[in-house]
Amino acid sequence: MRNIRRNPDIIWREEEEARDEALRAMERGDDASGEGTVLLVESGMMHQLNLLGGEIWKLLDGIDEERLVDTLAMTFDIDRETLSMDVRDFLIDIDGRGWLVHE
Amino acid sequence: MSRIPFSPVTINWTLTFRCNFNCRHCYSRPEKAPELPTEQVKEIMAKVAKYKVPFINYGGGEPLLRSDLFELTSYATCLGFNVSMNTNGFLMTREKAALAGESGFKTVGISIDSTRPEVHDDFRNIKGSHKKAVSAAKFLKEQGVRLTISSVICRINHTEFEDLVRQARDLGAEQISLHNYKCAGMGFTNKDELDLSPAEWKEFYLKAIALREKATDIRISMDDPITATIHKAPEQAIVKGSTCGKLSLNIRANGDVTPCGFIPVVIGNLLTDDLKDLWDHSNVLEKMRNKKPKEKCLTCKHYEDCLGGCTARAYATTGDFNSPDPHCWVAK
Ligand code: SF4
Ligand code: SF4
Which of B7, B72, B86, B209 has a CB 3.0–4.6 Å from the CB of B51, allowing a cystine? Predict the structure, then answer.
């Protein structure tokens, strides 16, 4: 299985305060999808990722999809099949934007 | 609108107010402030780096007049910043272009306001300045430094912006920024002569946005909140209205902090104040982030996206952040 990395041309940072708030909201069972926990800039355009997207993004240091899902399962209390599907959808989306490098 | 990022994403940094030019629109000519020595600039850079600010852009005055420019840029790059600058290009040589690359500049922006050399030279008050700007762009490209072009849209060029885009593309720029005219500094003094009417701004933006949508080989950037009346901000837009004080801050030559280069309201000084403290607790920033509609904005259907347009222009012309942008073409 191929390892996946972030495109190194993309500038990004974690929004720590937003991430803490999103984690608290998730624990309370509230919707945290509006919180941008990672901010990234690509070709002059600024984007933000929500909690799941942000956690995936931070892990893309040369990791395969299976291990990615295993690691996320420690944070997200979602059944494995749904989590795998969400991860797959997210990766397809950002790959289409040119944000990934496959090894 | 989603939450304000925990610290600025961009710091616009005026390292010096000195300039070898005297442009008719310049916001910073009347500005005077003592210039910090190298070590104090580095001290501030280190403090700012603590808050993971990703971008620093040196604005004018003319950054190339600082003899420590490349030393500061190497230092900033080591701290993790992505550094860029805007220069008039007059002092750029092949050697300096090489130093720009070596010191870590991610991009360098050259100001060119017309494709006609005599018009650019007259606007910038320096004979030969267009030729030098074009040479500067070529030196940077030769040295593999990523190039952007900046043009201030005003009376001299608003009907010729397509030529400006073509010129930037021919020079190998990856982006052209079509800056809106700011009524600050000399820009305020000369606004009757240089600024466009609201109807002319509308006409310019309608055409420029159409061109931007078609352009595939160069990015056309127009950072003006008033365009929210023409097209909705992209879904992922992080903030609405003016971005200053929400995504960016400005540092002056003496370390003073202002919301943006065009709003001369000092909220602190980074030799003594903490960036995050200013970012989180400044009353001025709070007012800019929570503007209240006034006059025609009260009934405007675009307010949610436009937030009254450019706060700097409103403040420069009325002294009130909340006033409608004087460039706004929406009828009362
Ligand atoms: S606009 Fe730039 S080049 Fe012109 S006078 Fe001002 S700082 Fe100098
Ligand atoms: S009236 Fe106010 S909110 Fe409406 S477009 Fe003009 S400046 Fe923006």
Answer: B7
